[in-house]
Automatic annotation (TrEMBL):
Name by which UniProt lists this protein: Glycosyltransferase involved in cell wall biosynthesis
Species the sequence originates in: Tumebacillus permanentifrigoris
UniProt key word Secreted: no
The Glycosyltransferase 2-like domain, residue ranges: 5-94
Gene Ontology molecular function terms on file: transferase activity
Keyword Transmembrane helix: no
Gene3D superfamilies per UniProt: Spore Coat Polysaccharide Biosynthesis Protein SpsA, Chain A, Tetratricopeptide repeat domain
Keywords: Transferase
Amino acid sequence: MNTVSLCMIVKNEENTIACCLDSVKDLVDEIIVVDTGSTDRTKEILRSYTDKVFDFPWIDDFSAARNFAFRHATMDYIFWLDADDVLLEDDRKKFSSLKDTLNPHVDSISMIYSLATDEHGSVTSSLRRNRLIKRKNHYRWHGAVHEYLEVWGNIINSDITVTHTKVHHNSDRNLRIYESRMARGEKFSPRDLFYFANELVDHQYHEQAIEYYQKFLETGQGWVEDMISACGKMADCFQHLGDHERERQSIFKSFEYDTPRADFCCRLGYQFLNKNQYPLAVFWYKLATQLDKPVEKWGLLNHACWTWLPHLQLCVCYSNLGQYKLAFEHNEIARKYVPTHASVLHNKSFLESIFEQK
């Protein structure tokens, strides 16, 4: 049977760490936690789960801390989590089965990372990450902030989901690290430019964020999913600034990197819907419904745009065009995905009243 080391880095996670470890403690063979300077009860809680708690002086480098944790692993595979991640019961069962049946020739297993859910627990935003890796391959983390794990070899994509729980963290930390690196004259990689721009967006520095997204795209060296994402985030910035023409240009720019994505089609549909240009809005929303939802997409996936949202908006468009039968049909499709959504229920009632009058 394969053995697994859980490796984590933490700081001041007294409110989350027990929930995380309770969800995986019986699935792994050792728990290794690196503390980067907790001042709360985190380490006290940790010691009730493991005696392998190590201190690591914080040097504004997440990769350094994660690699330090990996070096203490002794089992066949390494599984990594953040303190606000958990495995839900179905995923615990899948993980246990995977551990028992995993071919030792597999180098890495990717898992879905659920970033957000709706009020019914359905995933609304997700991506993939390499989560379970062969220890003897000595894979390493790279990047001081928004670090990534460099993996190669025989990689399989599992249907196991790691669920991220919403917990507030120091929102200035990452931006401060980037600004400090910039002040030291460090040359930013394309990936640094992208994530620095993301931090600027998070802090509402929209004009400066646009500048760095453009610098990132001009390198032509980014991961395609990041380049597409940068187009969407630039569009958000221009929308915030009220520049709808450049917002639209940013959306169309995403088509340079791949075939149209449903979320970008919905963006265009929304622009035309707001201008009461319903036939144009219908074109883009309808295209969104005709695209196949990716099954193993590594980039960020907005599930609403690939399922119910364009149908809901088509209902609005067709209703304004007086095509009530089509409006009702699309609202019913949306209702299959989100049966209790307030807008869906309102549309249903409204359209049924029109049919009764006729």
